[in-house]
Input
Amino acid sequence: MGPYRKSRLSPARGRPMVDQADEQAIRAYVDEIASRLDLSIDPASRPLVAAHLARLWTAAAVLMEFPLPEDVEPAQVFRP
Amino acid sequence: MNLGTADAVSLASAVRAGELRARDVVAAALERIAARDRALNCFTAVVADAAMAAAERVDATVGRGDDPGPLAGVPFAVKNLFDVAGLSTLAGSKINRDRPAARRDAAGVRALRRAGAILVGALNMDEYAYGFTTENSHYGPTRNPHDPTRTAGGSSGGSAAAVAAGLVPFSLGTDTNGSIRVPAALCGVFGLKPTYGRVSRVGVVLFAPSLDHVGPLARSTRDIAASFDALQGPDPDDPVCSERPPEPCWPALTQGVADLRIAVADGYFAEGAEPEALAAVETVAAALGVTRRMVVPEARRARAAAMLITASEGANQHLADLRSRPGDFDLLTRDRFLAGALLPATFYVRAQRFRTWYRDRVRALFAEVDVLLAPTTPCAAPPLGQERMLIAGREVLTRMHLGLYTQPLSFIGLPVVSVPVRQAGALALGVQLVGAPFTEATLLRVAAALEAVGVVAAPVANRLDTPPALA
Output
C-alpha cells in the first residue's frame, strides 16, 4: 500500500509507524480504503476522518511494538 | 421522609411497610422531572401514564399483603439504549427513530420491574455510546447538575445527571470504556461497572460487544447494592453472560474493611492528572489507612488496545448505516466510526491477543491485593463544547482524555465502583475501587465503609443557577 512503504512496523528502529506530518498519505489511504468498502466520505469530513485514523494508528503503534509471546491467543473463545 | 432526597432503599422500605404509597413516590418523581429536567436535559422520554399504572399495581400488591419486591415503588430511569416495550430504542441516535418500537423490555429493565421498581423514562446519551460527554447533536447536551455550563460526562450522562439532580434515586447505564464511571464521577454519584458478563445485555443496543457492560448509578452504596443484586445473574439468552450464580452484595455490605488488602494504583494511574484528582485518591487511601502502592503493568498499552477494539467493533456494528445514511449520524461520532472501519485487521487481532496477556498479568496482581484505588477521571467536569484542555501541564483532547483511567480496567472486564469524594466548594471527583472479577461485594463493602465516615457521599445537587465556588 503506497502511503506506508516508508513507515514500517519496526520497534527495533524506534520510529513511529506513521509519520505524523504525512497527512496527505493518510488521506490517500482513507480515500482508497473507504471507496473499496463502499463508504463515501464527505469532502469536509476527510481531514477529520484522517485525523481520527492517525490517532488510532498512533495507538496501534503503542500496541504493536510490544513483544507479545507467540503462544498468547486472542481473548475470544468460540464454542461450536 | 423527603421524597426528593430519600434513597431507593428508604423509599422501598416505606412502600413495603405501607407507610408510603408508590403512587405518591412516583408522582413526586414525575413532578421533579417536569420542574427540573428542561434545564438539565436528562430525559428523552418520560412514560408518566405507564409509571402511575405500575405504581397502582404495587400499591394493590401491598394492600393484598403480598410481597411487592425489594425495590417496590422506587422510580428509576434507563439510558435510551435499553429496550423499553413500546418505545423506540434511540441509542442516542436519529437513525434509530425509524426502527419499530421495542416489543419487550431489556433484561435489566425486566429484572428491576420484577423487583418492584417503576420505570419513569429513558435517558440521554452520546450517540451509539461513542463518547464521554453526552454532547448529543440530535437531542442536545445533558448538563451537569452541579454546574450547568459543564458536561455531565458520558456516554451515560443522562443516567448520572438524573440521579445527581435527585430526579430518580437510581438509573441504569452502560460502560464500554468508562461510560458509567466517567459521568458518575463528574456528577458526584456512585456508579458500578460490574464484572464483564455479570449482568445480562439482552435488549441493549451494543457498541463494542467485547467491552460492553450494564450497571447502575445511584446516590448511596446500599442503592447500588440493592439494584445490582436485582440485576446480576445468568441469562442463557446472552452469549457473554456468566453462568455463575448471583452473589448478593447486600448481606455483607456493612462488614467493614479490616480483612482487606488495599493498595493505591501507581505508575500510569498516578500520572497525567490534575492535582485534585490525585488528591481525591489520597483522601480515600488515608481514610482506609492504605499506604501500599502497586503498579498495573502496561496500562497505557491496554488503553490503546481498548481504543482499537472499540473503534473496530463499533464501526462494524454501524457499517450498513455508515454506507447508506452517513449524514444522519452525529458529527461527533460519525467520523470516528468511519476511521474505525478502515483499521487493518492485524491491529484488532493484536489487541485481542494483548488482552489475554494483560488479563493474566493483572490476575496475578490480584493474588496479592483485593482492591486497587485509582482516579476515575484526570480532572473535574470540563465546560461543554471544550475541545482541548490542559491536564498536568499538557494540552490534550478533552473528550477522549476523560477515559484515561477507566479504559485500561474495562478492557479486561474488572468490576469497578466509582465513589464520589466529598468536595466542599469544589467540583465533583470520583475514585475507582477496582477488584478482581466477581468481587463486587468486596468493592461495595469498601464503598460503604467510606460512606459511613463521610468521605464519599452524593447529596442531591440543586444549584442549577449558581455554579459552585471553586476552591
In short: Confidence is low (pLDDT under 50) at residues 464-471 of chain B.
